[in-house]
Amino acid sequence: MFALIGLGNPGAQYHSNRHNVGFMALDAIAHFYDFSAFQKKDRVQLSLGKIGSHNALLIKPQSFMNVSGPPVVPFLMFHKIPLNQCFIFHDDLDLPLAKVRVKTGGGHGGHNGLRSLDQHIGKDYHRVRMGIDRPNRPEMVSGYVLSDFSPQERPIVESMLCDIARYTTLLLDQDPSLFMTRMNPRPPSKMESPDGI
Q1: Active site (annotated) includes residue 19
Q2: What is the pLDDT of residue 84?
Q3: Which of 7, 75, 81, 196 is deepest in the core (most CB within 10 A)?
Q4: How far is CA 25 from the centre of its chain?
Q5: How much is the average pLDDT of 169-177?
Q6: % pLDDT > 90, the chain
Q7: Domain ranges of the chain
Q8: 3-class SS at 146?
Q9: pTM for this structure?
Q10: CB burial readout 81-111, b (16+ within 10 A) else e
Q11: DSSP 3-state assignment of 58?
Q12: Which of 19, 90, 111, 126 is catalytic?
């Protein structure tokens, strides 16, 4: 059993925020693989299904971002899911919009959801970092992450989410390098382009 955990804030007012792209990723995965509908259980929303040959549990904590860790713990313990089979999907200010990186372990980088998870489950999980860009001034960060994607950004984000869902099988097959290659294809050089222009 794998655990895929999306980070976000519960409530309709936060649904389309940049900070909630972790929830959006899990929704895209659930739809792509025809998972069961999300159901509220204790302090999370859960969905069960299969991704390729793998059983997977999708978890959206229904606490606020800065206390994401405690609601997750009972489900990881009950299903005996080790940290190396946990993938956390979250927004990342340090990556350009829709750029995706996978990292195992390391620091939380100031992300309150990761900080809470580190405190309650440890640090050796896999992180699927989804770029949301960074505002020009540090004092704008709080308002920025709690704002919605712009109309110009939405199609780019939707494309990223579709690709994440499509290639999640590679993550569970323990091939994060190929996942990142598929997610972030290298643009062709002039010599590689079809017309050489």
Answers
A1: yes
A2: 93
A3: 7
A4: 6
A5: 89
A6: 78
A7: 2-183
A8: coil
A9: 0.91
A10: bebebbbbbbbbbebebbbbbbeeeeebeeb
A11: strand
A12: 19
